[in-house]
Protein backbone atom coordinates (compact mmCIF):
# COMPACT_ATOMS: atom_id res chain seq x y z
CA UNK A 1 0.00 0.00 0.00
CA UNK A 2 1.31 3.43 -0.76
CA UNK A 3 -0.12 6.78 0.10
CA UNK A 4 0.76 10.42 0.00
CA UNK A 5 -0.66 12.34 2.89
CA UNK A 6 -1.46 15.99 3.30
CA UNK A 7 1.23 18.66 3.41
CA UNK A 8 2.64 18.63 6.92
CA UNK A 9 5.72 19.83 8.66
CA UNK A 10 8.59 17.46 7.88
CA UNK A 11 9.39 17.16 11.58
CA UNK A 12 5.89 16.04 12.38
CA UNK A 13 6.16 13.57 9.57
CA UNK A 14 9.19 11.99 11.12
CA UNK A 15 7.35 11.61 14.41
CA UNK A 16 4.25 10.17 12.76
CA UNK A 17 6.30 7.88 10.53
CA UNK A 18 7.92 6.61 13.71
CA UNK A 19 4.54 5.76 15.17
CA UNK A 20 3.44 3.98 12.02
CA UNK A 21 6.74 2.19 11.72
CA UNK A 22 6.53 1.06 15.34
CA UNK A 23 3.05 -0.37 14.85
CA UNK A 24 4.12 -2.30 11.78
CA UNK A 25 7.27 -3.61 13.43
CA UNK A 26 5.25 -4.78 16.43
CA UNK A 27 2.73 -6.61 14.22
CA UNK A 28 5.58 -8.21 12.33
CA UNK A 29 7.39 -9.43 15.43
CA UNK A 30 4.08 -10.81 16.75
CA UNK A 31 3.84 -12.71 13.44
CA UNK A 32 0.52 -11.03 12.68
CA UNK A 33 1.81 -9.83 9.32
CA UNK A 34 4.56 -11.15 7.07
CA UNK A 35 6.67 -8.97 4.83
CA UNK A 36 8.41 -9.85 1.62
CA UNK A 37 11.70 -11.65 1.23
CA UNK A 38 13.47 -11.52 -2.08
CA UNK A 39 15.83 -14.36 -1.20
CA UNK A 40 15.78 -17.10 1.45
CA UNK A 41 18.46 -15.47 3.58
CA UNK A 42 17.28 -11.90 2.96
CA UNK A 43 15.72 -9.86 5.77
CA UNK A 44 11.93 -9.71 5.69
CA UNK A 45 10.69 -6.28 4.68
CA UNK A 46 7.29 -5.13 5.83
CA UNK A 47 7.63 -1.40 5.29
CA UNK A 48 9.48 1.26 3.37
CA UNK A 49 8.67 4.66 4.78
CA UNK A 50 10.15 7.85 3.47
CA UNK A 51 8.62 11.23 4.29
CA UNK A 52 5.00 11.10 3.15
CA UNK A 53 5.50 8.18 0.80
CA UNK A 54 4.96 4.81 2.46
CA UNK A 55 5.05 1.26 1.20
CA UNK A 56 3.69 -1.57 3.36
CA UNK A 57 3.90 -5.27 2.58
CA UNK A 58 1.85 -8.18 3.89
CA UNK A 59 0.46 -11.52 2.79
CA UNK A 60 -2.74 -11.46 0.74
CA UNK A 61 -5.01 -12.92 3.44
CA UNK A 62 -8.12 -11.53 5.10
CA UNK A 63 -6.36 -11.86 8.48
CA UNK A 64 -3.35 -9.79 7.51
CA UNK A 65 -5.51 -7.20 5.71
CA UNK A 66 -7.42 -6.80 8.99
CA UNK A 67 -4.17 -6.28 10.89
CA UNK A 68 -3.10 -3.57 8.43
CA UNK A 69 -6.51 -1.95 8.72
CA UNK A 70 -6.23 -1.90 12.50
CA UNK A 71 -2.75 -0.42 12.29
CA UNK A 72 -4.08 2.40 10.12
CA UNK A 73 -6.98 3.05 12.52
CA UNK A 74 -4.63 3.13 15.49
CA UNK A 75 -2.30 5.42 13.60
CA UNK A 76 -5.14 7.78 12.73
CA UNK A 77 -6.29 7.93 16.35
CA UNK A 78 -2.77 8.53 17.63
CA UNK A 79 -1.73 11.16 15.10
CA UNK A 80 -5.01 12.86 14.27
CA UNK A 81 -3.98 12.34 10.66
CA UNK A 82 -6.38 10.86 8.16
CA UNK A 83 -4.92 8.32 5.78
CA UNK A 84 -6.24 9.24 2.37
CA UNK A 85 -7.38 5.92 0.95
CA UNK A 86 -8.28 7.47 -2.38
CA UNK A 87 -4.66 8.53 -2.90
CA UNK A 88 -3.40 5.08 -1.98
CA UNK A 89 -2.81 2.10 -4.19
CA UNK A 90 -2.81 -1.64 -3.60
CA UNK A 91 -1.01 -4.23 -5.70
CA UNK A 92 -1.33 -8.02 -5.57
CA UNK A 93 1.18 -10.65 -6.60
CA UNK A 94 0.36 -12.81 -9.55
CA UNK A 95 -1.94 -15.75 -8.85
CA UNK A 96 -4.20 -14.15 -6.26
CA UNK A 97 -7.83 -14.98 -7.05
CA UNK A 98 -10.36 -12.29 -7.88
CA UNK A 99 -12.56 -13.33 -4.94
CA UNK A 100 -9.76 -12.91 -2.45
CA UNK A 101 -8.89 -9.51 -3.93
CA UNK A 102 -12.51 -8.46 -3.45
CA UNK A 103 -12.54 -9.66 0.17
CA UNK A 104 -9.37 -7.73 0.91
CA UNK A 105 -10.63 -4.61 -0.87
CA UNK A 106 -13.70 -4.75 1.39
CA UNK A 107 -11.42 -4.44 4.38
CA UNK A 108 -9.02 -1.92 2.84
CA UNK A 109 -10.96 0.39 0.51
CA UNK A 110 -8.01 1.11 -1.74
CA UNK A 111 -7.75 1.19 -5.52
CA UNK A 112 -6.27 -2.02 -6.89
CA UNK A 113 -3.56 -1.47 -9.47
CA UNK A 114 -1.51 -3.73 -11.70
CA UNK A 115 1.66 -2.10 -10.42
CA UNK A 116 2.60 0.89 -8.30
CA UNK A 117 3.06 3.97 -10.40
CA UNK A 118 5.91 5.63 -8.53
CA UNK A 119 7.81 5.46 -5.29
CA UNK A 120 9.70 8.65 -4.44
CA UNK A 121 9.13 9.75 -8.00
CA UNK A 122 10.84 6.69 -9.40
CA UNK A 123 9.27 3.87 -11.36
CA UNK A 124 8.86 0.87 -9.04
CA UNK A 125 8.66 -1.76 -11.74
CA UNK A 126 11.00 -1.74 -14.68
CA UNK A 127 9.46 -3.63 -17.50
CA UNK A 128 11.16 -4.90 -20.60
CA UNK A 129 11.06 -1.52 -22.26
CA UNK A 130 13.51 0.64 -20.35
CA UNK A 131 13.40 3.29 -23.02
CA UNK A 132 9.75 3.98 -22.29
CA UNK A 133 10.51 4.48 -18.64
CA UNK A 134 13.21 6.97 -19.48
CA UNK A 135 11.30 8.79 -22.16
CA UNK A 136 10.22 11.41 -19.70
CA UNK A 137 13.83 12.19 -18.85
CA UNK A 138 14.69 12.55 -22.47
CA UNK A 139 11.81 14.89 -22.96
CA UNK A 140 12.92 17.03 -20.06
CA UNK A 141 16.42 17.25 -21.46
CA UNK A 142 15.22 17.96 -24.94
CA UNK A 143 13.28 20.91 -23.60
CA UNK A 144 16.45 22.24 -22.01
CA UNK A 145 18.51 21.71 -25.14
CA UNK A 146 16.23 23.48 -27.54
CA UNK A 147 17.92 26.63 -28.67
CA UNK A 148 21.46 25.52 -27.84
CA UNK A 149 23.80 24.97 -30.70
CA UNK A 150 26.33 22.71 -29.08
CA UNK A 151 28.93 22.94 -31.82
CA UNK A 152 29.13 26.71 -31.58
CA UNK A 153 29.85 26.70 -27.89
CA UNK A 154 33.22 27.27 -26.28
CA UNK A 155 34.51 24.65 -23.88
CA UNK A 156 33.20 26.68 -20.96
CA UNK A 157 29.88 27.07 -22.70
CA UNK A 158 29.68 23.34 -23.21
CA UNK A 159 30.23 22.65 -19.56
CA UNK A 160 27.45 25.06 -18.67
CA UNK A 161 25.23 23.20 -21.06
CA UNK A 162 26.11 19.90 -19.45
CA UNK A 163 25.32 21.30 -16.04
CA UNK A 164 21.97 22.55 -17.24
CA UNK A 165 21.23 19.14 -18.68
CA UNK A 166 22.39 17.31 -15.60
CA UNK A 167 20.13 19.44 -13.47
CA UNK A 168 17.15 18.42 -15.52
CA UNK A 169 17.64 14.83 -14.41
CA UNK A 170 16.82 14.07 -10.81
CA UNK A 171 20.06 13.03 -9.16
CA UNK A 172 18.37 10.27 -7.21
CA UNK A 173 17.26 8.74 -10.48
CA UNK A 174 20.83 8.67 -11.73
CA UNK A 175 21.91 7.23 -8.38
CA UNK A 176 19.67 4.26 -8.97
CA UNK A 177 19.74 3.57 -12.67
CA UNK A 178 22.34 3.58 -15.36
CA UNK A 179 20.58 5.56 -18.01
CA UNK A 180 20.87 3.61 -21.17
CA UNK A 181 22.60 4.64 -24.30
CA UNK A 182 20.98 4.22 -27.66
CA UNK A 183 17.24 4.41 -27.45
CA UNK A 184 16.50 6.61 -24.51
CA UNK A 185 20.16 7.11 -23.71
CA UNK A 186 22.35 10.13 -23.70
CA UNK A 187 25.38 10.92 -25.67
CA UNK A 188 27.34 12.99 -23.22
CA UNK A 189 30.47 11.40 -21.92
CA UNK A 190 30.43 13.75 -18.93
CA UNK A 191 26.89 12.82 -18.06
CA UNK A 192 27.54 9.12 -18.32
CA UNK A 193 30.55 9.59 -16.04
CA UNK A 194 28.40 11.47 -13.52
CA UNK A 195 25.79 8.73 -13.70
CA UNK A 196 28.44 6.06 -13.06
CA UNK A 197 30.03 8.09 -10.29
CA UNK A 198 26.67 8.28 -8.50
CA UNK A 199 26.05 4.56 -8.91
CA UNK A 200 29.55 3.73 -7.70
CA UNK A 201 28.63 5.56 -4.50
CA UNK A 202 25.87 3.02 -3.96
CA UNK A 203 28.39 0.25 -4.50
CA UNK A 204 30.76 1.88 -2.06
CA UNK A 205 28.00 1.97 0.56
CA UNK A 206 27.31 -1.72 0.03
CA UNK A 207 30.97 -2.42 0.80
CA UNK A 208 31.44 -0.05 3.70
CA UNK A 209 28.00 -0.37 5.33
CA UNK A 210 27.27 -4.08 5.03
CA UNK A 211 24.71 -4.01 7.85
CA UNK A 212 22.42 -1.51 6.13
CA UNK A 213 19.07 -2.91 5.01
CA UNK A 214 19.77 -2.47 1.32
CA UNK A 215 23.18 -4.13 1.63
CA UNK A 216 21.69 -7.13 3.42
CA UNK A 217 18.92 -7.51 0.88
CA UNK A 218 21.17 -7.21 -2.17
CA UNK A 219 23.79 -9.52 -0.71
CA UNK A 220 21.20 -12.19 0.06
CA UNK A 221 19.81 -11.96 -3.42
CA UNK A 222 22.83 -11.47 -5.65
CA UNK A 223 26.10 -12.36 -3.90
CA UNK A 224 25.24 -14.49 -0.85
CA UNK A 225 28.65 -16.20 -0.72
CA UNK A 226 30.83 -13.43 -2.14
CA UNK A 227 31.80 -9.86 -1.58
CA UNK A 228 30.19 -7.04 -3.55
CA UNK A 229 33.20 -6.62 -5.82
CA UNK A 230 33.04 -10.33 -6.70
CA UNK A 231 29.34 -10.27 -7.59
CA UNK A 232 28.63 -11.54 -11.07
CA UNK A 233 25.98 -10.82 -13.64
CA UNK A 234 22.94 -13.07 -13.59
CA UNK A 235 20.08 -13.48 -15.98
CA UNK A 236 17.50 -12.24 -13.55
CA UNK A 237 18.61 -8.96 -12.07
CA UNK A 238 16.64 -5.89 -11.14
CA UNK A 239 17.46 -2.92 -13.29
CA UNK A 240 18.75 -0.97 -10.34
CA UNK A 241 21.10 -3.75 -9.23
CA UNK A 242 22.30 -4.23 -12.78
CA UNK A 243 23.10 -0.52 -12.87
CA UNK A 244 25.06 -0.61 -9.61
CA UNK A 245 26.91 -3.70 -10.78
CA UNK A 246 27.79 -2.11 -14.10
CA UNK A 247 29.31 0.87 -12.34
CA UNK A 248 31.31 -1.25 -9.90
CA UNK A 249 34.30 -1.16 -12.24
CA UNK A 250 34.88 2.38 -11.00
CA UNK A 251 35.52 1.15 -7.46
CA UNK A 252 37.49 -1.85 -8.70
CA UNK A 253 39.78 0.31 -10.75
CA UNK A 254 40.16 3.24 -8.40
CA UNK A 255 40.70 1.60 -5.05
CA UNK A 256 42.93 -0.91 -3.37
CA UNK A 257 42.77 -3.12 -0.31
CA UNK A 258 44.71 -2.63 2.86
CA UNK A 259 45.23 -6.00 4.43
CA UNK A 260 43.79 -6.92 7.77
CA UNK A 261 42.61 -10.50 8.13
CA UNK A 262 42.78 -11.14 4.38
CA UNK A 263 39.33 -12.70 4.65
CA UNK A 264 37.56 -10.34 2.30
CA UNK A 265 40.17 -9.91 -0.39
CA UNK A 266 40.09 -12.04 -3.49
CA UNK A 267 43.66 -13.01 -4.37
CA UNK A 268 43.08 -13.03 -8.09
CA UNK A 269 40.54 -10.34 -8.84
CA UNK A 270 41.03 -7.60 -6.23
CA UNK A 271 43.63 -4.83 -6.18
CA UNK A 272 45.97 -5.53 -3.33
CA UNK A 273 49.46 -6.26 -4.61
CA UNK A 274 50.21 -3.09 -6.51
CA UNK A 275 48.84 -0.01 -4.89
CA UNK A 276 47.98 3.41 -6.17
CA UNK A 277 46.52 3.21 -9.60
CA UNK A 278 48.56 0.25 -10.81
CA UNK A 279 45.94 -2.41 -11.21
CA UNK A 280 47.44 -5.06 -13.42
CA UNK A 281 48.02 -8.47 -11.87
CA UNK A 282 50.88 -10.10 -13.75
CA UNK A 283 50.83 -13.59 -12.39
CA UNK A 284 48.52 -15.51 -14.70
CA UNK A 285 45.41 -16.67 -12.89
CA UNK A 286 45.43 -20.46 -12.59
CA UNK A 287 42.58 -22.35 -14.24
CA UNK A 288 41.36 -23.70 -10.93
CA UNK A 289 42.38 -20.90 -8.66
CA UNK A 290 43.44 -22.06 -5.25
CA UNK A 291 44.18 -19.67 -2.43
CA UNK A 292 41.18 -17.59 -3.44
CA UNK A 293 41.40 -15.38 -0.38
CA UNK A 294 44.50 -13.47 0.60
CA UNK A 295 44.10 -15.05 4.02
CA UNK A 296 45.15 -18.36 2.44
CA UNK A 297 48.57 -16.86 1.69
CA UNK A 298 49.34 -16.22 5.34
CA UNK A 299 50.73 -18.65 7.85
CA UNK A 300 48.13 -20.10 10.16
CA UNK A 301 49.06 -18.43 13.38
CA UNK A 302 51.47 -15.56 13.10
CA UNK A 303 51.25 -12.23 11.33
CA UNK A 304 53.38 -13.48 8.49
CA UNK A 305 53.19 -14.38 4.84
CA UNK A 306 53.64 -17.96 3.78
CA UNK A 307 56.86 -17.12 1.92
CA UNK A 308 57.32 -20.55 0.45
CA UNK A 309 53.80 -20.68 -0.96
CA UNK A 310 53.97 -17.17 -2.34
CA UNK A 311 57.26 -17.81 -4.12
CA UNK A 312 55.69 -20.92 -5.58
CA UNK A 313 52.55 -19.41 -7.06
CA UNK A 314 53.50 -15.86 -8.00
CA UNK A 315 56.02 -14.63 -10.52
CA UNK A 316 59.18 -13.39 -8.83
CA UNK A 317 58.42 -9.70 -9.20
CA UNK A 318 55.00 -10.01 -7.62
CA UNK A 319 56.11 -12.42 -4.94
CA UNK A 320 58.67 -9.84 -3.81
CA UNK A 321 56.04 -7.13 -3.91
CA UNK A 322 53.67 -9.18 -1.74
CA UNK A 323 56.32 -10.08 0.80
CA UNK A 324 56.99 -6.36 1.26
CA UNK A 325 53.37 -5.71 2.29
CA UNK A 326 53.16 -5.58 6.08
CA UNK A 327 50.55 -7.70 7.84
CA UNK A 328 49.76 -5.46 10.75
CA UNK A 329 46.80 -6.87 12.60
CA UNK A 330 44.92 -9.94 11.47
CA UNK A 331 42.08 -9.30 13.88
CA UNK A 332 41.18 -6.21 11.84
CA UNK A 333 38.83 -6.25 8.86
CA UNK A 334 40.35 -5.61 5.46
CA UNK A 335 39.69 -2.08 4.35
CA UNK A 336 39.13 -0.72 0.90
CA UNK A 337 40.82 2.60 0.21
CA UNK A 338 39.65 4.88 -2.53
CA UNK A 339 42.58 6.42 -4.34
CA UNK A 340 40.93 9.68 -5.26
CA UNK A 341 40.41 11.32 -1.87
CA UNK A 342 42.64 12.22 1.05
CA UNK A 343 40.70 10.12 3.54
CA UNK A 344 40.32 7.12 1.23
CA UNK A 345 36.54 7.34 1.20
CA UNK A 346 34.77 7.38 -2.11
CA UNK A 347 32.97 10.57 -3.05
CA UNK A 348 30.88 11.20 -6.13
CA UNK A 349 33.03 14.18 -7.06
CA UNK A 350 36.28 12.22 -6.93
CA UNK A 351 34.65 9.31 -8.74
CA UNK A 352 33.56 11.59 -11.52
CA UNK A 353 37.01 13.09 -11.76
CA UNK A 354 38.63 9.65 -11.86
CA UNK A 355 36.36 8.43 -14.63
CA UNK A 356 37.07 11.53 -16.68
CA UNK A 357 40.83 11.25 -16.01
CA UNK A 358 40.95 7.63 -17.04
CA UNK A 359 39.12 8.54 -20.22
CA UNK A 360 37.89 5.01 -20.18
CA UNK A 361 36.12 3.77 -23.23
CA UNK A 362 32.80 3.04 -21.68
CA UNK A 363 30.25 2.11 -24.28
CA UNK A 364 28.77 5.55 -24.24
CA UNK A 365 31.87 7.55 -24.91
CA UNK A 366 33.35 5.14 -27.43
CA UNK A 367 30.80 6.44 -29.83
CA UNK A 368 30.86 10.04 -28.80
CA UNK A 369 34.19 11.25 -27.52
CA UNK A 370 36.57 13.10 -29.73
CA UNK A 371 39.16 10.38 -29.00
CA UNK A 372 37.24 8.26 -31.41
CA UNK A 373 39.81 6.24 -33.40
CA UNK A 374 37.84 7.07 -36.51
CA UNK A 375 38.96 10.68 -36.09
CA UNK A 376 42.36 9.85 -34.68
CA UNK A 377 43.88 7.45 -37.20
CA UNK A 378 43.58 9.71 -40.25
CA UNK A 379 45.29 12.44 -38.21
CA UNK A 380 48.10 10.05 -37.32
CA UNK A 381 48.66 8.89 -40.90
CA UNK A 382 48.68 12.47 -42.14
CA UNK A 383 51.35 13.61 -39.68
CA UNK A 384 54.34 15.10 -41.38
CA UNK A 385 56.83 12.54 -39.97
CA UNK A 386 58.67 9.57 -41.45
CA UNK A 387 56.27 6.63 -41.84
CA UNK A 388 58.28 4.46 -39.46
CA UNK A 389 57.52 6.97 -36.69
CA UNK A 390 53.81 6.98 -37.32
CA UNK A 391 53.91 3.17 -37.44
CA UNK A 392 55.73 3.07 -34.12
CA UNK A 393 53.09 5.34 -32.60
CA UNK A 394 50.40 3.10 -34.03
CA UNK A 395 52.01 0.03 -32.46
CA UNK A 396 52.48 1.78 -29.10
CA UNK A 397 48.84 2.84 -28.97
CA UNK A 398 47.67 -0.62 -29.92
CA UNK A 399 50.05 -2.16 -27.40
CA UNK A 400 51.49 -4.20 -30.24
CA UNK A 401 55.20 -3.98 -29.35
CA UNK A 402 57.01 -7.09 -28.12
CA UNK A 403 57.88 -5.58 -24.76
CA UNK A 404 58.58 -8.23 -22.15
CA UNK A 405 55.27 -7.74 -20.38
CA UNK A 406 53.41 -8.51 -23.59
CA UNK A 407 55.53 -11.54 -24.38
CA UNK A 408 54.98 -12.80 -20.86
CA UNK A 409 51.23 -12.30 -21.14
CA UNK A 410 51.23 -14.40 -24.29
CA UNK A 411 52.39 -17.29 -22.08
CA UNK A 412 56.06 -17.31 -23.02
CA UNK A 413 58.30 -18.07 -20.06
CA UNK A 414 60.63 -15.15 -19.58
CA UNK A 415 61.60 -12.60 -17.00
CA UNK A 416 59.03 -9.83 -17.58
CA UNK A 417 61.02 -7.15 -15.73
CA UNK A 418 62.40 -4.14 -17.53
CA UNK A 419 66.00 -5.14 -18.42
CA UNK A 420 67.22 -1.57 -18.03
CA UNK A 421 66.02 -0.65 -14.55
CA UNK A 422 64.76 -4.03 -13.23
CA UNK A 423 62.24 -2.30 -11.00
CA UNK A 424 58.99 -3.23 -12.67
CA UNK A 425 57.36 -5.05 -15.57
CA UNK A 426 58.38 -3.83 -19.02
CA UNK A 427 55.26 -2.40 -20.63
CA UNK A 428 54.92 0.11 -23.47
CA UNK A 429 53.89 2.67 -20.92
CA UNK A 430 56.93 1.94 -18.78
CA UNK A 431 59.41 1.98 -21.67
CA UNK A 432 58.31 5.26 -23.17
CA UNK A 433 57.01 7.24 -20.23
CA UNK A 434 58.33 5.92 -16.91
CA UNK A 435 61.64 4.16 -17.11
CA UNK A 436 64.46 6.26 -15.67
CA UNK A 437 66.79 4.87 -18.26
CA UNK A 438 64.61 6.26 -21.08
CA UNK A 439 63.91 9.57 -19.43
CA UNK A 440 67.57 10.35 -19.05
ZN1 LIG B 1 62.76 0.41 -16.85
UniProtKB/TrEMBL annotation:
Highest taxon of source: Eukaryota
Residue span, Reverse transcriptase zinc-binding domain: 367-437
Cited InterPro entries: RT_dom, RVT-Znf
Short name of any one Pfam family annotated for the protein: zf-RVT
Domain Reverse transcriptase positions: 5-122
The protein's name in its UniProt record: Reverse transcriptase domain-containing protein
Annotated source species: Trifolium subterraneum
